[in-house]
Protein backbone atom coordinates (compact mmCIF):
# COMPACT_ATOMS: atom_id res chain seq x y z
CA UNK A 1 0.00 0.00 0.00
CA UNK A 2 1.34 3.40 -0.93
CA UNK A 3 1.14 6.47 1.30
CA UNK A 4 1.59 10.20 0.80
CA UNK A 5 3.94 12.02 3.18
CA UNK A 6 3.99 15.56 4.51
CA UNK A 7 6.83 17.47 6.11
CA UNK A 8 5.22 19.96 8.52
CA UNK A 9 7.96 22.39 9.54
CA UNK A 10 6.32 24.57 12.23
CA UNK A 11 7.58 27.35 14.48
CA UNK A 12 8.31 25.09 17.42
CA UNK A 13 8.62 21.64 15.88
CA UNK A 14 8.99 19.53 12.76
CA UNK A 15 6.84 16.53 11.86
CA UNK A 16 6.79 13.98 9.09
CA UNK A 17 3.45 12.22 8.68
CA UNK A 18 2.35 9.47 6.31
CA UNK A 19 -1.32 9.48 5.24
CA UNK A 20 -3.38 6.81 3.50
CA UNK A 21 -5.99 7.41 0.81
CA UNK A 22 -8.71 8.16 3.40
CA UNK A 23 -6.51 10.77 5.06
CA UNK A 24 -5.77 8.56 8.06
CA UNK A 25 -2.37 8.84 9.72
CA UNK A 26 -0.24 5.72 9.17
CA UNK A 27 2.85 6.87 11.08
CA UNK A 28 4.52 10.05 12.26
CA UNK A 29 7.52 11.44 14.09
CA UNK A 30 8.03 14.88 15.62
CA UNK A 31 11.02 16.84 16.98
CA UNK A 32 11.26 20.29 18.57
CA UNK A 33 14.02 22.71 17.63
CA UNK A 34 15.74 25.47 19.55
CA UNK A 35 14.19 28.92 19.79
CA UNK A 36 17.11 31.35 19.80
CA UNK A 37 16.31 34.70 21.48
CA UNK A 38 19.45 36.90 21.18
CA UNK A 39 17.63 40.04 22.39
CA UNK A 40 14.12 40.94 23.60
CA UNK A 41 11.73 40.68 20.66
CA UNK A 42 14.23 38.80 18.45
CA UNK A 43 13.84 35.14 17.52
CA UNK A 44 15.88 33.04 15.12
CA UNK A 45 16.19 29.39 14.05
CA UNK A 46 19.24 27.40 13.03
CA UNK A 47 18.27 25.96 9.63
CA UNK A 48 20.88 23.18 9.88
CA UNK A 49 19.12 21.99 13.05
CA UNK A 50 15.77 22.17 11.26
CA UNK A 51 17.12 20.22 8.29
CA UNK A 52 18.64 17.56 10.59
CA UNK A 53 15.25 17.24 12.33
CA UNK A 54 13.50 16.82 8.97
CA UNK A 55 15.87 13.99 8.07
CA UNK A 56 15.38 12.21 11.42
CA UNK A 57 11.59 12.65 11.29
CA UNK A 58 11.44 11.20 7.76
CA UNK A 59 13.67 8.23 8.64
CA UNK A 60 11.84 7.46 11.91
CA UNK A 61 8.38 7.70 10.35
CA UNK A 62 9.33 5.46 7.43
CA UNK A 63 10.81 2.92 9.85
CA UNK A 64 7.66 2.98 12.03
CA UNK A 65 5.54 2.30 8.93
CA UNK A 66 7.83 -0.55 7.75
CA UNK A 67 9.45 1.44 4.93
CA UNK A 68 6.39 1.57 2.66
CA UNK A 69 6.10 3.01 -0.85
CA UNK A 70 5.76 6.80 -0.72
CA UNK A 71 3.81 8.09 -3.73
CA UNK A 72 4.61 11.75 -3.12
CA UNK A 73 5.68 14.19 -0.43
CA UNK A 74 4.35 17.67 0.34
CA UNK A 75 6.04 20.44 2.31
CA UNK A 76 4.22 22.81 4.62
CA UNK A 77 5.99 25.38 6.73
CA UNK A 78 6.02 28.23 9.18
CA UNK A 79 5.54 31.13 6.79
CA UNK A 80 7.54 34.39 6.36
CA UNK A 81 10.54 32.99 8.31
CA UNK A 82 13.46 33.94 6.10
CA UNK A 83 16.88 32.49 5.40
CA UNK A 84 19.64 33.38 2.96
CA UNK A 85 22.26 30.78 2.03
CA UNK A 86 25.17 30.31 -0.35
CA UNK A 87 24.11 28.45 -3.49
CA UNK A 88 27.55 26.79 -3.82
CA UNK A 89 28.33 25.72 -0.25
CA UNK A 90 24.76 25.44 1.03
CA UNK A 91 25.72 27.34 4.17
CA UNK A 92 23.31 29.87 5.65
CA UNK A 93 24.79 33.36 6.11
CA UNK A 94 22.78 33.82 9.32
CA UNK A 95 20.13 31.97 11.32
CA UNK A 96 16.66 32.27 9.84
CA UNK A 97 14.74 35.31 11.09
CA UNK A 98 11.48 33.97 12.48
CA UNK A 99 8.10 35.43 11.49
CA UNK A 100 7.45 37.01 14.90
CA UNK A 101 10.98 38.46 15.22
CA UNK A 102 10.78 42.24 15.69
CA UNK A 103 14.32 43.41 14.94
CA UNK A 104 13.04 45.08 11.78
CA UNK A 105 10.79 47.57 13.62
CA UNK A 106 13.02 50.53 12.63
CA UNK A 107 12.97 49.52 8.95
CA UNK A 108 9.17 49.29 9.17
CA UNK A 109 8.90 52.75 10.73
CA UNK A 110 11.15 54.21 8.07
CA UNK A 111 9.13 52.61 5.25
CA UNK A 112 5.81 53.60 6.76
CA UNK A 113 6.95 57.16 7.30
CA UNK A 114 8.57 57.60 3.89
CA UNK A 115 6.35 55.57 1.63
CA UNK A 116 3.09 54.93 3.51
CA UNK A 117 1.68 51.47 3.74
CA UNK A 118 -0.98 51.76 1.08
CA UNK A 119 1.24 50.92 -1.87
CA UNK A 120 2.26 47.64 -0.24
CA UNK A 121 -1.35 46.78 0.62
CA UNK A 122 -2.46 47.58 -2.95
CA UNK A 123 0.17 45.36 -4.54
CA UNK A 124 0.70 42.54 -2.05
CA UNK A 125 -2.45 42.59 0.13
CA UNK A 126 -0.26 43.04 3.24
CA UNK A 127 0.63 46.04 5.41
CA UNK A 128 4.28 46.88 6.02
CA UNK A 129 5.07 44.99 9.23
CA UNK A 130 7.93 43.18 10.96
CA UNK A 131 5.95 39.96 10.28
CA UNK A 132 6.68 39.63 6.55
CA UNK A 133 9.83 38.49 4.76
CA UNK A 134 10.72 41.67 2.82
CA UNK A 135 12.01 43.62 5.83
CA UNK A 136 13.81 40.52 7.13
CA UNK A 137 15.69 40.24 3.80
CA UNK A 138 16.57 43.95 4.04
CA UNK A 139 17.89 43.49 7.59
CA UNK A 140 20.04 40.51 6.56
CA UNK A 141 21.42 42.32 3.49
CA UNK A 142 22.30 45.36 5.60
CA UNK A 143 23.65 43.62 8.70
CA UNK A 144 25.53 40.51 7.58
CA UNK A 145 28.97 41.47 6.37
CA UNK A 146 29.52 40.83 2.66
CA UNK A 147 25.99 39.52 2.11
CA UNK A 148 24.75 42.28 -0.18
CA UNK A 149 27.77 41.80 -2.46
CA UNK A 150 27.19 38.01 -2.46
CA UNK A 151 23.52 38.53 -3.33
CA UNK A 152 24.37 40.95 -6.13
CA UNK A 153 26.94 38.45 -7.48
CA UNK A 154 24.23 35.74 -7.54
CA UNK A 155 25.91 33.62 -4.84
CA UNK A 156 23.45 34.26 -2.01
CA UNK A 157 19.88 33.05 -2.43
CA UNK A 158 16.78 33.64 -0.34
CA UNK A 159 14.03 31.32 0.69
CA UNK A 160 11.22 30.84 3.12
CA UNK A 161 11.44 27.44 4.82
CA UNK A 162 9.53 25.62 2.03
CA UNK A 163 12.16 26.79 -0.46
CA UNK A 164 15.06 25.87 1.79
CA UNK A 165 13.73 22.35 2.43
CA UNK A 166 12.95 21.75 -1.24
CA UNK A 167 16.45 22.90 -2.15
CA UNK A 168 17.92 20.46 0.41
CA UNK A 169 15.62 17.56 -0.62
CA UNK A 170 16.42 18.06 -4.31
CA UNK A 171 20.16 17.77 -3.65
CA UNK A 172 20.83 21.53 -3.80
CA UNK A 173 19.38 22.01 -7.27
CA UNK A 174 15.82 23.40 -7.20
CA UNK A 175 15.21 26.97 -6.01
CA UNK A 176 11.43 27.34 -6.05
CA UNK A 177 8.61 28.55 -3.80
CA UNK A 178 4.85 28.21 -4.11
CA UNK A 179 2.45 31.07 -4.62
CA UNK A 180 0.96 30.82 -1.09
CA UNK A 181 4.37 31.24 0.54
CA UNK A 182 5.40 33.93 -1.95
CA UNK A 183 2.26 35.88 -1.04
CA UNK A 184 3.66 36.27 2.51
CA UNK A 185 6.87 38.03 1.55
CA UNK A 186 5.37 41.48 0.84
CA UNK A 187 7.18 41.28 -2.49
CA UNK A 188 4.67 39.42 -4.69
CA UNK A 189 1.93 41.11 -6.68
CA UNK A 190 -1.40 39.37 -6.03
CA UNK A 191 -2.51 40.31 -9.56
CA UNK A 192 0.44 38.86 -11.50
CA UNK A 193 1.61 36.37 -8.86
CA UNK A 194 5.19 37.34 -9.72
CA UNK A 195 7.78 39.34 -7.79
CA UNK A 196 6.95 43.03 -8.08
CA UNK A 197 9.82 45.02 -9.57
CA UNK A 198 8.60 48.36 -8.14
CA UNK A 199 8.80 46.98 -4.60
CA UNK A 200 12.12 45.21 -5.22
CA UNK A 201 13.60 48.51 -6.47
CA UNK A 202 12.14 50.44 -3.54
CA UNK A 203 13.60 48.00 -1.01
CA UNK A 204 16.84 47.43 -2.94
CA UNK A 205 16.45 43.64 -3.02
CA UNK A 206 18.15 41.90 -5.99
CA UNK A 207 15.59 39.87 -7.96
CA UNK A 208 18.21 37.20 -8.72
CA UNK A 209 18.23 36.02 -5.10
CA UNK A 210 14.52 35.18 -5.13
CA UNK A 211 13.11 31.73 -5.98
CA UNK A 212 10.86 31.01 -8.93
CA UNK A 213 7.14 31.16 -7.99
CA UNK A 214 5.15 28.05 -8.91
CA UNK A 215 1.76 26.54 -8.07
CA UNK A 216 1.05 24.75 -4.78
CA UNK A 217 0.54 21.36 -6.43
CA UNK A 218 2.92 20.12 -9.12
CA UNK A 219 6.10 18.03 -9.23
CA UNK A 220 8.90 20.46 -8.33
CA UNK A 221 11.66 17.85 -7.96
CA UNK A 222 12.42 14.24 -7.17
CA UNK A 223 14.10 13.52 -3.85
CA UNK A 224 17.88 13.30 -4.33
CA UNK A 225 19.20 9.78 -5.00
CA UNK A 226 21.48 9.94 -1.96
CA UNK A 227 18.89 11.50 0.37
CA UNK A 228 16.19 10.16 2.70
CA UNK A 229 13.47 10.26 0.01
CA UNK A 230 15.28 8.98 -3.11
CA UNK A 231 13.31 9.63 -6.32
CA UNK A 232 10.11 10.45 -4.44
CA UNK A 233 8.17 13.27 -6.17
CA UNK A 234 8.11 16.41 -4.03
CA UNK A 235 4.85 17.73 -5.38
CA UNK A 236 3.02 19.93 -2.89
CA UNK A 237 4.03 23.16 -1.13
CA UNK A 238 1.78 25.36 0.97
CA UNK A 239 2.31 27.82 3.80
CA UNK A 240 1.08 26.08 6.95
CA UNK A 241 -2.07 28.15 7.41
CA UNK A 242 -3.06 27.71 3.80
CA UNK A 243 -2.33 23.97 4.16
CA UNK A 244 -4.69 23.84 7.15
CA UNK A 245 -7.38 25.61 5.08
CA UNK A 246 -6.88 22.99 2.36
CA UNK A 247 -6.69 20.08 4.83
CA UNK A 248 -9.97 21.29 6.38
CA UNK A 249 -11.39 21.05 2.84
CA UNK A 250 -12.48 24.70 2.94
CA UNK A 251 -12.75 24.69 -0.86
CA UNK A 252 -15.79 26.97 -1.14
CA UNK A 253 -15.76 30.77 -0.82
CA UNK A 254 -17.01 31.66 2.67
CA UNK A 255 -15.62 28.55 4.40
CA UNK A 256 -13.21 29.34 7.25
CA UNK A 257 -10.87 27.71 9.73
CA UNK A 258 -8.82 28.78 12.71
CA UNK A 259 -5.54 27.07 13.61
CA UNK A 260 -4.46 27.27 17.27
CA UNK A 261 -0.65 26.76 17.28
CA UNK A 262 2.18 28.99 18.51
CA UNK A 263 0.11 31.79 17.02
CA UNK A 264 -3.49 31.70 15.83
CA UNK A 265 -4.46 32.04 12.22
CA UNK A 266 -8.04 32.53 11.07
CA UNK A 267 -8.49 32.18 7.32
CA UNK A 268 -11.49 32.39 5.02
CA UNK A 269 -11.57 31.19 1.42
CA UNK A 270 -12.71 34.05 -0.87
CA UNK A 271 -12.67 32.06 -4.11
CA UNK A 272 -10.96 33.57 -7.14
CA UNK A 273 -11.62 37.13 -5.90
CA UNK A 274 -8.88 39.31 -4.45
CA UNK A 275 -10.72 41.15 -1.66
CA UNK A 276 -8.84 44.13 -0.21
CA UNK A 277 -9.30 44.57 3.53
CA UNK A 278 -10.18 47.81 5.27
CA UNK A 279 -10.51 46.10 8.66
CA UNK A 280 -6.92 45.05 9.32
CA UNK A 281 -7.08 41.61 7.72
CA UNK A 282 -4.58 40.28 5.20
CA UNK A 283 -5.44 39.52 1.58
CA UNK A 284 -3.43 36.50 0.66
CA UNK A 285 -3.20 33.50 -1.65
CA UNK A 286 -5.08 30.43 -0.42
CA UNK A 287 -3.73 27.90 -2.90
CA UNK A 288 -3.24 27.19 -6.58
CA UNK A 289 -3.60 23.66 -7.91
CA UNK A 290 -1.43 23.22 -11.02
CA UNK A 291 -2.86 25.30 -13.87
CA UNK A 292 -6.19 25.96 -12.17
CA UNK A 293 -7.08 29.54 -11.18
CA UNK A 294 -5.59 30.80 -7.94
CA UNK A 295 -7.86 30.72 -4.89
CA UNK A 296 -7.51 33.70 -2.54
CA UNK A 297 -8.22 34.15 1.15
CA UNK A 298 -8.63 36.73 3.88
CA UNK A 299 -6.60 36.09 7.01
CA UNK A 300 -6.56 37.30 10.61
CA UNK A 301 -3.14 36.54 12.12
CA UNK A 302 -2.61 36.51 15.89
CA UNK A 303 1.06 36.43 16.89
CA UNK A 304 0.78 34.86 20.35
CA UNK A 305 -1.51 31.93 21.19
CA UNK A 306 0.14 28.67 22.32
CA UNK A 307 3.28 30.74 22.89
CA UNK A 308 1.63 32.21 25.99
CA UNK A 309 1.30 28.69 27.41
CA UNK A 310 5.00 28.07 26.73
CA UNK A 311 5.78 31.39 28.45
CA UNK A 312 3.82 30.42 31.57
CA UNK A 313 5.71 27.11 31.53
CA UNK A 314 9.25 28.25 30.66
CA UNK A 315 9.44 31.81 31.98
CA UNK A 316 7.00 32.08 34.91
CA UNK A 317 7.20 28.34 35.63
CA UNK A 318 3.65 28.27 36.97
CA UNK A 319 3.01 25.07 35.00
CA UNK A 320 5.46 22.29 34.15
CA UNK A 321 3.72 21.09 31.00
CA UNK A 322 1.27 22.68 28.55
CA UNK A 323 -1.69 20.50 29.51
CA UNK A 324 -1.55 21.75 33.12
CA UNK A 325 -2.95 25.10 32.04
CA UNK A 326 -6.35 23.48 31.58
CA UNK A 327 -6.32 21.93 35.07
CA UNK A 328 -5.46 25.31 36.58
CA UNK A 329 -8.00 27.22 34.50
CA UNK A 330 -10.76 24.75 35.37
CA UNK A 331 -10.08 25.00 39.09
CA UNK A 332 -11.53 28.55 39.22
CA UNK A 333 -15.00 29.70 38.20
CA UNK A 334 -13.82 32.67 36.19
CA UNK A 335 -10.79 34.90 35.58
CA UNK A 336 -11.21 36.67 38.95
CA UNK A 337 -11.12 40.01 37.10
CA UNK A 338 -7.72 39.32 35.50
CA UNK A 339 -7.16 40.14 31.81
CA UNK A 340 -3.94 39.24 30.04
CA UNK A 341 -2.99 40.60 26.62
CA UNK A 342 0.16 38.74 25.48
CA UNK A 343 1.29 41.41 23.00
CA UNK A 344 4.83 39.99 23.09
CA UNK A 345 5.41 40.85 19.41
CA UNK A 346 3.21 43.91 19.37
CA UNK A 347 -0.33 43.27 18.17
CA UNK A 348 -0.99 41.68 14.79
CA UNK A 349 -4.46 41.61 13.17
CA UNK A 350 -6.66 43.52 13.27
CA UNK A 351 -4.61 46.18 15.14
CA UNK A 352 -1.10 46.01 13.54
CA UNK A 353 0.54 47.89 16.40
CA UNK A 354 4.21 47.10 16.90
CA UNK A 355 4.33 49.69 19.71
CA UNK A 356 2.11 47.45 21.86
CA UNK A 357 3.56 45.28 24.62
CA UNK A 358 1.98 42.67 26.87
CA UNK A 359 -0.09 43.61 29.92
CA UNK A 360 -1.73 41.76 32.78
CA UNK A 361 -4.41 43.96 34.30
CA UNK A 362 -7.31 43.83 36.73
CA UNK A 363 -4.99 42.47 39.43
CA UNK A 364 -6.16 42.51 43.05
CA UNK A 365 -4.98 40.64 46.12
CA UNK A 366 -7.59 38.02 45.21
CA UNK A 367 -5.85 37.00 41.94
CA UNK A 368 -4.06 33.65 41.84
CA UNK A 369 -1.99 31.74 39.32
CA UNK A 370 -5.17 29.86 38.47
CA UNK A 371 -6.80 33.14 37.44
CA UNK A 372 -3.74 34.02 35.38
CA UNK A 373 -3.92 30.63 33.63
CA UNK A 374 -7.58 31.21 32.86
CA UNK A 375 -6.87 34.75 31.63
CA UNK A 376 -4.16 33.35 29.32
CA UNK A 377 -6.58 30.90 27.71
CA UNK A 378 -9.22 33.62 27.43
CA UNK A 379 -6.66 35.89 25.77
CA UNK A 380 -6.24 33.37 22.96
CA UNK A 381 -10.01 33.19 22.46
CA UNK A 382 -10.46 37.00 22.67
CA UNK A 383 -7.80 37.53 20.01
CA UNK A 384 -9.52 35.05 17.69
CA UNK A 385 -12.82 36.81 18.41
CA UNK A 386 -11.26 40.13 17.36
CA UNK A 387 -10.19 38.79 13.96
CA UNK A 388 -13.49 36.99 13.41
CA UNK A 389 -15.39 40.21 14.18
CA UNK A 390 -13.16 42.06 11.68
CA UNK A 391 -13.98 39.40 9.07
CA UNK A 392 -17.70 39.63 9.84
CA UNK A 393 -17.61 43.40 9.36
CA UNK A 394 -15.53 43.11 6.21
CA UNK A 395 -17.78 40.49 4.63
CA UNK A 396 -21.02 41.74 6.24
CA UNK A 397 -21.94 38.29 7.54
CA UNK A 398 -22.20 36.39 10.84
CA UNK A 399 -20.03 33.34 11.29
CA UNK A 400 -22.17 30.50 12.65
CA UNK A 401 -19.55 27.77 12.79
CA UNK A 402 -15.77 27.59 12.79
CA UNK A 403 -13.56 24.65 11.85
CA UNK A 404 -10.56 24.45 14.16
CA UNK A 405 -7.26 22.59 14.33
CA UNK A 406 -3.74 22.89 15.79
CA UNK A 407 -1.98 21.83 18.99
CA UNK A 408 -4.18 23.90 21.34
CA UNK A 409 -7.44 22.23 20.26
CA UNK A 410 -6.75 19.41 22.73
CA UNK A 411 -7.70 22.03 25.33
CA UNK A 412 -11.46 21.56 25.63
CA UNK A 413 -11.82 24.49 28.02
CA UNK A 414 -10.32 26.82 25.44
CA UNK A 415 -12.64 25.46 22.74
CA UNK A 416 -15.69 26.10 24.95
CA UNK A 417 -14.52 29.64 25.80
CA UNK A 418 -14.01 30.22 22.07
CA UNK A 419 -17.51 29.02 21.22
CA UNK A 420 -18.99 31.24 23.95
CA UNK A 421 -17.14 34.37 22.84
CA UNK A 422 -17.96 33.88 19.15
CA UNK A 423 -21.52 32.74 19.85
CA UNK A 424 -20.85 30.11 17.18
CA UNK A 425 -20.24 26.37 16.93
CA UNK A 426 -16.61 25.27 17.11
CA UNK A 427 -15.92 22.08 15.18
CA UNK A 428 -12.84 19.86 15.33
CA UNK A 429 -12.31 17.34 12.51
CA UNK A 430 -11.42 13.65 12.86
CA UNK A 431 -7.88 14.22 11.56
CA UNK A 432 -6.50 16.99 13.78
CA UNK A 433 -3.23 17.20 11.76
CA UNK A 434 -4.95 19.25 9.07
CA UNK A 435 -1.84 21.26 8.22
CA UNK A 436 0.15 18.18 7.24
CA UNK A 437 -2.92 16.66 5.63
CA UNK A 438 -3.37 19.74 3.42
CA UNK A 439 0.23 19.48 2.18
CA UNK A 440 -0.22 15.75 1.58
CA UNK A 441 -3.41 16.46 -0.38
CA UNK A 442 -1.60 19.03 -2.57
CA UNK A 443 1.24 16.54 -3.22
CA UNK A 444 -1.09 13.57 -3.83
CA UNK A 445 -3.30 15.51 -6.26
CA UNK A 446 -0.26 16.38 -8.37
CA UNK A 447 0.65 12.72 -8.91
CA UNK A 448 -2.90 11.35 -9.24
CA UNK A 449 -2.95 9.61 -5.81
CA UNK A 450 -6.21 11.52 -5.32
CA UNK A 451 -8.09 12.27 -8.55
CA UNK A 452 -9.77 15.52 -7.54
CA UNK A 453 -10.90 17.56 -4.54
CA UNK A 454 -14.23 15.70 -4.36
CA UNK A 455 -12.28 12.66 -3.19
CA UNK A 456 -10.86 14.80 -0.38
CA UNK A 457 -14.19 16.26 0.78
CA UNK A 458 -15.47 12.85 1.93
CA UNK A 459 -12.42 12.43 4.18
CA UNK A 460 -13.45 15.40 6.36
CA UNK A 461 -15.56 14.26 9.32
CA UNK A 462 -16.48 15.83 12.64
CA UNK A 463 -14.72 14.48 15.74
CA UNK A 464 -16.05 16.96 18.32
CA UNK A 465 -18.17 20.05 18.50
CA UNK A 466 -18.72 22.83 21.07
CA UNK A 467 -21.91 24.91 21.24
CA UNK A 468 -22.06 28.34 22.87
CA UNK A 469 -23.61 28.90 26.27
CA UNK A 470 -23.10 32.44 27.49
CA UNK A 471 -25.65 35.22 27.91
CA UNK A 472 -25.35 38.24 25.64
CA UNK A 473 -25.02 40.40 28.76
CA UNK A 474 -22.06 38.38 30.11
CA UNK A 475 -20.44 38.37 26.69
CA UNK A 476 -20.67 42.10 26.20
CA UNK A 477 -19.33 42.83 29.72
CA UNK A 478 -16.28 40.64 29.31
CA UNK A 479 -15.62 41.85 25.75
CA UNK A 480 -15.71 45.47 26.86
CA UNK A 481 -13.11 44.73 29.57
CA UNK A 482 -10.95 42.98 26.99
CA UNK A 483 -11.09 46.10 24.80
CA UNK A 484 -9.96 48.20 27.78
CA UNK A 485 -7.06 45.79 28.33
CA UNK A 486 -6.09 46.13 24.64
CA UNK A 487 -6.02 49.94 25.04
CA UNK A 488 -3.51 49.55 27.87
CA UNK A 489 -1.00 47.70 25.65
CA UNK A 490 -0.72 50.56 23.12
CA UNK A 491 1.94 53.30 22.84
CA UNK A 492 4.37 51.39 25.02
CA UNK A 493 7.45 51.19 22.76
N1 LIG B 1 -3.16 21.17 26.48
C1 LIG B 1 -2.77 22.34 25.96
N2 LIG B 1 -3.37 23.49 26.32
C2 LIG B 1 -2.99 24.68 25.79
N3 LIG B 1 -2.02 24.81 24.89
C3 LIG B 1 -1.38 23.71 24.48
C4 LIG B 1 -1.71 22.42 24.99
N4 LIG B 1 -0.89 21.52 24.39
C5 LIG B 1 -0.09 22.22 23.56
N5 LIG B 1 -0.38 23.53 23.60
C6 LIG B 1 0.27 24.62 22.85
O1 LIG B 1 0.12 24.35 21.47
C7 LIG B 1 1.25 24.86 20.75
C8 LIG B 1 1.74 23.80 19.79
O2 LIG B 1 0.79 23.65 18.78
P1 LIG B 1 1.27 23.28 17.30
O3 LIG B 1 0.03 23.28 16.46
O4 LIG B 1 2.10 22.07 17.38
O5 LIG B 1 2.17 24.57 17.03
P2 LIG B 1 3.15 25.00 15.83
O6 LIG B 1 2.62 24.36 14.58
O7 LIG B 1 2.99 26.49 15.85
O8 LIG B 1 4.54 24.58 16.19
C9 LIG B 1 2.33 25.18 21.77
O9 LIG B 1 2.49 26.59 21.80
C10 LIG B 1 1.77 24.69 23.10
O10 LIG B 1 2.05 25.58 24.14
O1 LIG C 1 4.21 27.25 12.64
P1 LIG C 1 2.94 27.86 13.15
O2 LIG C 1 1.80 26.91 13.21
O3 LIG C 1 3.18 28.61 14.41
O4 LIG C 1 2.49 28.95 12.05
C1 LIG C 1 3.24 30.09 11.86
C2 LIG C 1 2.66 30.91 10.74
O5 LIG C 1 2.79 30.30 9.50
C3 LIG C 1 3.26 32.28 10.72
O6 LIG C 1 2.64 33.07 9.73
TrEMBL record:
GO cellular component: cytosol
E.C. number(s) listed in UniProt: 2.7.1.30
Enzyme class label: transferase
Limits of the Carbohydrate kinase FGGY C-terminal domain: 257-446
Keyword check for Magnesium: no
Xref: InterPro entries: ATPase_NBD (IPR043129), Carb_kinase_FGGY (IPR000577), Carb_kinase_FGGY_CS (IPR018483), FGGY_C (IPR018485), FGGY_N (IPR018484), Glycerol_kin (IPR005999)
Presence of the UniProt keyword Nucleotide-binding in the record: yes
Pathway info: Polyol metabolism; glycerol degradation via glycerol kinase pathway; sn-glycerol 3-phosphate from glycerol: step 1/1
Highest taxon above the source species: Eukaryota
CDD domains per record: ASKHA_NBD_FGGY_GK
A biological process from GO: glycerol-3-phosphate metabolic process
Domain Carbohydrate kinase FGGY N-terminal: 5-247
MF term (GO), any: ATP binding
Reactions this protein catalyses: glycerol + ATP = sn-glycerol 3-phosphate + ADP + H(+)
Signal peptide residue numbers: none
Keywords in alphabetical order: ATP-binding, Glycerol metabolism, Kinase, Nucleotide-binding, Transferase
Family to which this protein belongs: Belongs to the FGGY kinase family.
Cross-referenced NCBIfam families: glycerol_kin, PRK00047.1
Protein known as: glycerol kinase
Annotated source species: Thraustotheca clavata
